[in-house]
Amino acid sequence: MESTSGKHILAGFHAVNARLRTDPASIEVLYFDTTRRDARMQQLLARAAEAQVRCVAADARRLEGLSPEAPHQGVVAQASTRHAAGTVTHFEDLLNGVNPQTFLLVLDGVTDPRNLGACMRTAAAAGVDAVIVPRDRSASLTTVAAKAAAGAADSLALVTVTNLARAMKDMQDAGIWIVGAEMEATRSLYEVDLTGPRAWALGAEGSGLRRLTRERCDELVHIPMAPGMESLNVSVAAGVCLFEARRQRSAAAARAQA
What we know:
Layout: E1 7-11, H1 13-22, E2 27-33, H2 39-50, E3 55-58, H3 60-66, E4 75-80, H4 91-96, E5 103-108, H5 113-126, E6 130-134, H6 143-149, E7 157-161, H7 164-173, E8 177-181, E9 187-188, E10 198-203, H8 211-216, E11 219-222, H9 234-257
Parallel strand pairs: 2-3, 5-6, 5-10, 6-7, 8-10, 8-11, 9-11
Antiparallel strand pairs: 1-4, 2-4
Helix pairs in contact: 1-2, 5-6, 5-9
């Protein structure tokens, strides 16, 4: 989802369909491959026509020129820049809205846009409110990342901060408990309370959390793994950690209603 002069390029069915659902008015033109006549394309074009989105037939060369980095599957949309609908857009707004259900994901040093997108998809599925990344040493929401997010980029805020360690301190001051995933940690993620205002902090596979980020966490835990395995891809680790938190939070909500 690269932005130039206030424009986004959305590539692939997931990304385009997500924008058609959440904000079709932001789509300025939708380019489609006329050689694709399958049901999936017909459904997308029908949804676009219903939303009065301008659709333009394009050949493969034009589509590849519009989306040179991400596979387009025969559909590319040019849209105006926007923030995810119904989500925070600034870090200060995030802190001002902290409540007992606040649930965040902090990514440190995740520079691969596909990993960023996959983490966003997982976070959206787990019910995370926002993903927080540092301005430096982090992937941004490019077309490749948006495609990997499979529509999550339009429902989940990506909040960029200048200094991650300082931002984590501000989160703690606002009442958020930060749990970091660390291979060498003594406690397992299954031994900690993940209810209440929580944030998971995850680093890139191999390098993990940077020292300052690791030291800023309130608690460090590891993901139990079979012997011989040392690390997981960050998006896989995010799935394990976030859905354990979701399980605990759902169980706590059920107990409260009983």
